[in-house]
Each structure stands twice: as C-alpha cells, then as structure tokens.
Design a protein that fits this description.
Helices cover about 65% and strands about 5% of the residues. With about 180 residues, the protein is mainly alpha-helical. Helix 5 packs antiparallel against helix 6. The relative contact order is 0.10. The structure holds zinc ion. The site of zinc ion has 7 residues, from helix 2.
C-alpha cells in the first residue's frame, strides 16, 4: 500500500461513542446492535453483570429478550397456529437456543412445547394440500389439534415463564393496559 493510501484508509475509519462511559472507540469495537445502548466491550461486561443481578438469570442480550417477547406475543395474540403459518418458524431455532442457555425447568417446558408445535406445524404443511384423501385429512386434523393444545400449554406457563425473564407475558400486559 502506498503511504497516501494508508492515510486515506486510516482517515475513513469511523469512530463511535460508548453511551455509558462516553469514550470514543473505533466503530468495530462498539456493540451497536445487541442493546439499546451502544456499548464498548468494558461497559458491555458491566451491563451484562448488572442485568444478570437485576433479572436473576443468565446473561442475555436485549435482542435475545426481544425474541422471547416476540414469540410470547405471537402465541398469545395470534395463537400457536397463527405464528406457524406466519413464517415465524424461521427463528424458532434461535429461540430454542436462547432458552437453552439458562435451561431451567420452565425453559425446558417451553422448549418442549415449541418443538412439538413446530413438528406438528411441519406435518400440517406437508399434508394440508392433500386433505381430499381421508387418511391424509386425518393426519392434518390431528396436527392442528396438537398445535392448539401446544398453544394452551404455553398459555398456562406464560406468566411464570415471562416473569422468570423479568418481563410480562402479553396477556397480562394487555389486561393491565386496558385497565381490567
Ligand atoms: Zn464504555
């Protein structure tokens, strides 16, 4: 590289400010995607520790918590079959992986519910266009029943599950907002 090229390279390097300590860093050293705050690596560590103490569970990023909240909303608002037909299953592996980090009894319960629902959802998709054949219609109907029952199972544990992550489940939030 020519000297002049090196200079222009250095000059184009973007700086970013950490929202917590206010120091400037090269953009690549600041995490600007996982949290609402832009955090340098030192402040990110502190931030994780603080949230862990506050929430009493394994360190998760804001983004990961958002995904948990997203699925809670999908199931409680649109129903288990609602999110399955909404192409939301693409992120289901991320969701399961996030819950596996803490992997407590309630996480395992929720993972099992969503796995069962996903399998039943795939089964339903495979068969839904051939329901003119009675045997296939039977399989498709059974898958739908399984999906519905997964939805009910989630509803039963939703409050405990979301509270355990320091959040509120969608139905509780909804009920509180309309002042019931
Ligand atoms: Zn910082």
């Amino acid at each position: 590289m020519l000297r002049k090229d090196i200079y222009s390279f250095v000059e184009t390097e973007e700086l970013a400010t950490c929202s917590v300590c206010g120091n400037e860093f090269e953009e690549t050293e600041i995490n600007m995607t996982d949290y609402e705050l832009d955090l340098c690596s030192t402040c990110e560590k502190d931030h994780k520790i603080t949230s862990t103490i506050q929430r009493g569970y394994t360190m998760l990023t804001d983004k990961e918590l958002e995904l948990i909240s997203h699925y809670d909303y999908q199931v409680l608002n649109n129903g288990m079959s609602g999110w399955l037909s909404n192409h939301q299953y693409k992120q289901i592996f991320d969701f399961v992986e996030i819950l596996s980090k803490r992997n407590s009894a309630i996480d395992q319960k929720v993972i099992a519910i969503f796995k069962k629902a996903t399998i039943s959802g795939m089964e339903y998709l495979q068969h839904k266009d051939s329901t003119f054949i009675p045997e296939i219609k039977e399989i498709a109907d059974e898958s739908l029943i399984d999906i519905e029952s997964c939805g009910k199972q989630y509803k039963e544990v939703a409050t405990e599950f979301m509270n355990s992550y320091g959040m509120e489940d969608y139905l509780t939030k909804f009920t509180n907002n309309i002042g019931l």
